[in-house]
Amino acid sequence: MTNVLLYGIISVSPLVLGSILGCYLKLKERVIGAIAAFGAGALIAAITFGLMEEAFQLGGLDSSIFGFLVGGLLFIIGDMIIIRWGGRGHRRYHSAQNSTGWGIVLAAVLDGLPESFALGISLALNSKIGLLVLVAIVLNNLPEAISSAYDLKNAGRNTKQIIYTWLGVALAGLISVIVGFLIFNIISPDITAMFESIAAGAVLAMLAVTMMPEAYREAHMGAAFGTLSGFLLIFILSKAGI
Asked: Model confidence over 57-89: pLDDT tens digits?
């Protein structure tokens, strides 16, 4: 349980750090986009070589496919609701006029919950895969928080509001990691594998509708190199037995 708590804290710490950096540092959008693409590539690799592979080994092909599609659909539905509540208005690919405070918070929580649950579930099944997922989450969360804080600042939010928002998101993420581990540590591996594929589908849907489009808009072709680099890093780590 100590390791789970440690992994959870490490996974959410970049959210707080990134929000502070996004408020006080004026980073070029191209740099933020390239880093975000790197994190997205790392998460895609963690899904491919970690979550889905483990789900397939334990639950079989049918269970993995069903869970993956369900997870993606759940995120899409949740994201559509969040957009209607003004949760994406502060991002550059939506209208800032439709932004609301609670909507922004809920959007940030929605983005973070799938990966946090994925970390908790992977730790319950296989600590090596949990480490891969942790590395990918850290690489993804830092640029996500930097970019979001930057957008919130431009949307008129003050620094205290932004940092408190991401502190709340980090706390929700930490709780999700712990809850995911505690629940699925006592459930049969085949059922846990199903939920692992659900988490994987939700994470990939999140990347497709938030991180990757924004990374491309900011870094253009640099997003391609960033995604390739992040994917390659996790691929190397997975084949090195980490």
From this structure: 999 999 999 999 999 999 999 888 887 766 554
